[in-house]
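Listing S7. Sequence submitted for prediction.
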Amino acid sequence: MEPVLIVLVVLVVVAFIALIKTIQVIPQASAAIVERFGRYTRTLNAGLNIVVPFIDRVRNRIDLREQVVPFPPQPVITQDNLVVNIDTVIYYQVTDPRAATYEVASYIQAIEQLTVTTLRNIIGSMDLESTLTSREVINAGLRGVLDEATGKWGIRVNRVELKAIEPPTSIQDSMEKQMRADRDKRAAILTAEGQRQAQILKAEGEKQADVLRAEGEAQAAVLRADGEAAAIRTVFEAIHDGDADQKLLAYQYLQTLPELAKGDSNKLWIIPSEVGDALKGLGGAFGGLTGNGGANGGAVAAPSVPPAAPAATQVPLDPAAGPRPVDTEKGAARPRVDPAREYRKIDPE
């Protein structure tokens, strides 16, 4: 019984293993390559699949999703003989599991080496400045070469990105100095342009202010002259309408004379010749006014001016000296004074 039991157990185990190998469950977005006696038979897609146990063998499972593979920095020489390190990132997807399995031994390594060689070809024809500013051109050229080469491998390269481009340290320092100098230059230019614009605007503002001020002064002068002309015209018309005579003009002259004498610096002032005539007319007017007043009893006569005091005479102190000689020279009789004699002053009052 024991040998039979052992055989039964062995058969059960073999059947279980065969069942496991017969049923193959493939996840979504995956594929599996099936070989029968070492030869490709078919590709298993996602879901439940049945294979012949111990005859069919699943070689490998391939992920059909888009993959991202970063490659380490690669030294590349530019056209101007500068070594730069370039990091690349490849986005690819397996479109044909059979070709990806049988057309290339390791498609990841093949893509990496192809990327390095293509970068060296592209960067070798460009200088450093073009390399730093032409990433899109480099990406487009690299992607075109990779698509053409990996198409027969069942691989589709979706994107190629340059992760970093690192020039030598000395070149980086020089580039930083150049960039700093360019920025300082642009800042100085912008500052100078700002100052220039400010000065221009300020000059234009001052010009407009001067023009407006001059126009205002001109209008004020015109208005002032018009006012003075109107005032003179009004006064002139009033004088003519009132039929002013010489007496009124003489009175106006007398009112104007104090204004002429105002001021501490007035040492000499000139009276026009017409003032004398006006004063004569005014004197005549006052004289006529006085005479008429005495006759009519309505005016008061001007007070009489007291006669001037007689000039002081000098007589000799000695009465016995007799009369003094009289000097009749220059047409005027006046007493002659003897300097040798002493005289005393006599008040006529």
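Caption to Listing S7: primary sequence and predicted structure tokens for the chain studied. The chain has a mean pLDDT of 76. The radius of gyration is 67 Å.
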